[in-house]
Amino acid sequence: MMLLYNLTINGYTAAVRFASHFNPKARLWVEGRHKIIQRIQEAMKTNQQRVVWVHCASLGEFEQGRPVIEAIRKQHPAYKILLTFFSPSGYEVRKNYTGADYVFYLPADTPANAREFIAAAKPAVAIFIKYEFWFNFMKELRHNNIPIIIISAIFRPGHHFFGWYGFWFLKQLIAINRFYVQNESSGELLRRNGITQVVVSGDTRFDRVKEVAAQEFSHPVIEAFASGNQVLIAGSTWPPDEELIVALMKKPPINLRLLIAPHEVDQQRIEQLVKEFGKGALRLSKANPDSAREARVLIVDNVGMLSQLYRYGHYAYIGGGFGVGTHNILEAATFGLPLFFGPNHQKFRETIDLIRLRGAFPVSSIACFLSIFEKVASDNYIYQQAHAACLDYIARNTGATEIIMTGLKGYLQEE
Q: Are residues 302 and 197 in the same domain?
């Protein structure tokens, strides 16, 4: 089975290399891994301190792991932190993250790369976020008696680990030292399949968004835009989401301004949005406080700011619900914003919970969105109920980081 796995890894790598000739993301994936082992060896060859290796797939998983990374930095300062990413969307945004001592792409998961990476990094412990299971790296870690910890994990019966063909995959999980899972159903599923080294810790994303809400943040242009106005924050939107938002802004039920941060921020997408919203639409990169005061729509044409921007809103529309699934709603919920999103939201517990608690409102069409938005915006009781539901939900679900850090103490011994 390992042979088939390695053939799959090699095939995937070859496919990405081919795609890099015409796909910008694939090009970043390939270029970022050019001589990656040599660069890691060079960066770490003089290090004399013990290392915690934290790996995450992309930006979303990084945000889940960030509270733990920063807690390790604070509570165990003798350790260096090595942070790796699989995806360009994570690495390119966080490659200068000061909470880690080293930040790299993860080399392709081949036996040779795994041996050379572990030999260069010499981690005392490896922490993988959520779904990251790279079996050659895991094999090499086990061979060197290096503990493997999985945090913020979530498992469902349909995962390949638990299918009729999943015995080999499940066997890899048994060798992991500790799982910190988001919910009891994940823990029970693992236990039923012979994996008992499980702690139900909750989801570190709640801790992260609570931290963000408590941070000081100031943006003079956005403050000028939002001051004295009702603002809808539309985050991580895709074209199907934007059809609804454009329709709302053509005839809003209240005096409303829109701050929109599309999921893709390439030049073509931003120009298309400016055209769709028409007069009164302004790109953030070209705005100043005076021009922002006169704008009706402010388009965020950079990445990495969105989680801080919800503080300026009164309502939030979260994109992705007309595609594979809703993006992060917790970043908006932590500020108490009533939430709107498309119909494909069932993958995430928080969307289901907040719909039940009347803090969130799924919409399936333009007419549906316009009707529900008007109801929430015009009825203060409904608005305040949603506001309180979101704040209370965040408050009741924090604490995962503390549970994880208590467990990690056994692996992070000070000299």
A: no
* Domain co-membership, 26 together with 70: yes
Domain range for 328 is 212-396
Nearest to 302 by CA among 246, 342, 260: 260
Q: Which pLDDT belongs to residue 315?
A: 99
Report CA dihedral (216, 219, 225, 231) to the nearest 10 degrees. -40
Q: Are residues 239 and 342 both part of a single domain?
A: yes
In sequence order, the β-bridge partners of residue 339 are: 316, 360
3-state percent breakdown (helix, strand, coil) of the chain, nearest 5: 50, 15, 35
Cα separation, 192 vs 323, whole angstroms: 33
pLDDT tens by residue, 218-246: 999 999 999 999 999 999 999 999 999 99
Tell me, yes or no, whether 249 lies in a domain. yes
Cβ–Cβ < 8 Å for 392, 201: no
Which tokens is 312 given?
Answer: 């300026």
**DSSP one-letter string for 369-415:** HHHHHHHHHH-HHHHHHHHHHHHHHHHHT--HHHHHHHHHTTT----
Give pLDDT, residue 414. Answer: 64
pLDDT tens digits, 180-217: 999 999 999 999 999 999 999 999 999 999 999 999 99
Strand locations in 142-289, DSSP E? 148-153, 178-181, 198-200, 230-237, 256-262, 281-283
**Which of 13-22, 157-166, 288-297, 354-363 comes out lowest in average pLDDT?**
157-166
How far apart are alpha carbons 68 and 376 in whole angstroms? 37
